[in-house]
C-alpha cells in the first residue's frame, strides 16, 4: 500500500495570533517538526492549503474555505491521481505526532481518538468527500467520520495540539530537549 502524507495547514491561526505553523520549537518552525515526523511514515509528503519550502502544495477541494476537510479532499484527489492508495493526515499544529501511525491506524478509514485530524483515509474516497462537502454544507470532521464509518483508534499516547501561545509555552516546558526533532 502506497501512503501519501498530508499536512493540513490552511488555517488562519486566529487563536494563536500569528502564523502558528511558523512558530519556532527548538529553533525550527512547527511545520518542520510535523514534516520531519510524518515523512518517514509515508511514501510522499504534501502540504494542503498553503505553500511551504520545497513541499508540494495541494489546493483545497472542491474549493478553499471549507476547513480541514477541504484539505483532506485535495489530498485524496492528489493521492488517487498519483498512484497512492492511502492518505495519512496530520495538522500543522501537532509537533509531536508519534511513529507507526499507518500500522496503528489501519485498516482505513480511521482517526486517532481525540485527535481526529490525524487519520488514515483511502484515496478512493476523494469523490465522495467532495460531494459530501458540496451537498451537505457540513464541514465537520465528525459528520464525515459518521458517513464513512471511520474508526476512532486509541493509540495510548498523548499528542500535542498547539492552538494558542500558552499551548506552545506549555509544550516547550513539557518537551524540553525532547522537542528537538
Ligand atoms: N487545508 C486546510 N487546512 C485547514 C483549514 N482550516 C484549518 N486547517 C488546518 O486544520 C488544522 C486545525 O485547524 P485549527 O486548529 O482550527 O487551526 P486554525 O484554523 O489555523 O486556527 P484558529 O484560527 O485559531 O481556529 C490546522 O492544522 C489548520 O492549519 C482549511 O480551510 N484548509
UniProtKB/TrEMBL annotation:
<keyword id="KW-0460">Magnesium</keyword>
<feature type="domain" description="MobA-like NTP transferase">
    <location>
        <begin position="5"/>
        <end position="143"/>
    </location>
</feature>
<dbReference type="InterPro" id="IPR013482">
    <property type="entry name" value="Molybde_CF_guanTrfase"/>
</dbReference>
<dbReference type="GO" id="GO:0005737">
    <property type="term" value="C:cytoplasm"/>
</dbReference>
<keyword id="KW-0479">Metal-binding</keyword>
<dbReference type="Pfam" id="PF12804">
    <property type="entry name" value="NTP_transf_3"/>
</dbReference>
<feature type="binding site">
    <location>
        <position position="93"/>
    </location>
    <ligand>
        <name>Mg(2+)</name>
    </ligand>
</feature>
<dbReference type="GO" id="GO:0006777">
    <property type="term" value="P:Mo-molybdopterin cofactor biosynthetic process"/>
</dbReference>
<keyword id="KW-0342">GTP-binding</keyword>
<dbReference type="GO" id="GO:0061603">
    <property type="term" value="F:molybdenum cofactor guanylyltransferase activity"/>
</dbReference>
<keyword id="KW-0808">Transferase</keyword>
<feature type="binding site">
    <location>
        <begin position="8"/>
        <end position="10"/>
    </location>
    <ligand>
        <name>GTP</name>
    </ligand>
</feature>
<feature type="binding site">
    <location>
        <position position="93"/>
    </location>
    <ligand>
        <name>GTP</name>
    </ligand>
</feature>
<feature type="binding site">
    <location>
        <position position="20"/>
    </location>
    <ligand>
        <name>GTP</name>
    </ligand>
</feature>
<dbReference type="GO" id="GO:0005525">
    <property type="term" value="F:GTP binding"/>
</dbReference>
<protein>
    <recommendedName>
        <fullName>Molybdenum cofactor guanylyltransferase</fullName>
        <ecNumber>2.7.7.77</ecNumber>
    </recommendedName>
</protein>
<comment type="subunit">
    <text>Monomer.</text>
</comment>
<keyword id="KW-0501">Molybdenum cofactor biosynthesis</keyword>
<comment type="similarity">
    <text>Belongs to the MobA family.</text>
</comment>
<dbReference type="InterPro" id="IPR025877">
    <property type="entry name" value="MobA-like_NTP_Trfase"/>
</dbReference>
<keyword id="KW-0963">Cytoplasm</keyword>
<dbReference type="GO" id="GO:0046872">
    <property type="term" value="F:metal ion binding"/>
</dbReference>
<dbReference type="InterPro" id="IPR029044">
    <property type="entry name" value="Nucleotide-diphossugar_trans"/>
</dbReference>
<comment type="function">
    <text>Transfers a GMP moiety from GTP to Mo-molybdopterin (Mo-MPT) cofactor (Moco or molybdenum cofactor) to form Mo-molybdopterin guanine dinucleotide (Mo-MGD) cofactor.</text>
</comment>
<feature type="binding site">
    <location>
        <position position="60"/>
    </location>
    <ligand>
        <name>GTP</name>
    </ligand>
</feature>
<keyword id="KW-0547">Nucleotide-binding</keyword>
Amino acid at each position: 500500500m502506497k501512503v501519501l502524507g498530508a499536512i493540513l495547514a490552511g488555517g488562519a491561526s486566529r487563536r494563536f495570533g500569528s502564523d502558528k505553523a511558523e512558530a519556532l520549537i527548538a529553533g525550527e518552525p512547527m511545520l518542520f517538526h510535523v514534516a520531519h515526523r510524518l515523512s518517514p511514515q509515508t511514501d510522499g509528503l504534501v502540504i494542503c492549503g498553503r505553500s511551504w519550502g520545497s513541499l508540494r502544495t495541494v489546493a483545497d477541494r472542491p474549493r478553499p474555505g471549507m476547513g480541514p476537510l477541504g484539505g483532506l479532499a485535495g489530498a485524496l484527489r492528489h493521492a488517487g491521481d498519483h498512484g497512492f492508495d492511502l492518505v495519512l493526515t496530520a495538522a500543522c499544529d501537532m509537533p509531536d505526532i508519534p511513529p507507526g501511525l499507518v500500522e496503528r491506524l489501519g485498516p482505513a478509514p480511521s482517526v486517532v481518538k481525540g485527535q481526529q485530524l490525524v487519520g488514515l483515509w483511502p484515496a478512493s474516497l476523494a469523490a465522495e468527500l467532495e460531494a459530501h462537502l458540496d451537498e451537505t454544507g457540513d464541514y465537520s470532521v465528525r459528520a464525515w467520520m459518521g458517513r464513512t464509518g471511520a474508526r476512532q483508534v486509541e493509540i495510548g499516547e498523548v499528542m500535542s495540539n498547539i492552538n494558542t501561545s500558552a499551548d506552545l509555552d506549555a509544550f516547550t516546558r513539557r518537551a524540553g530537549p525532547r522537542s528537538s526533532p
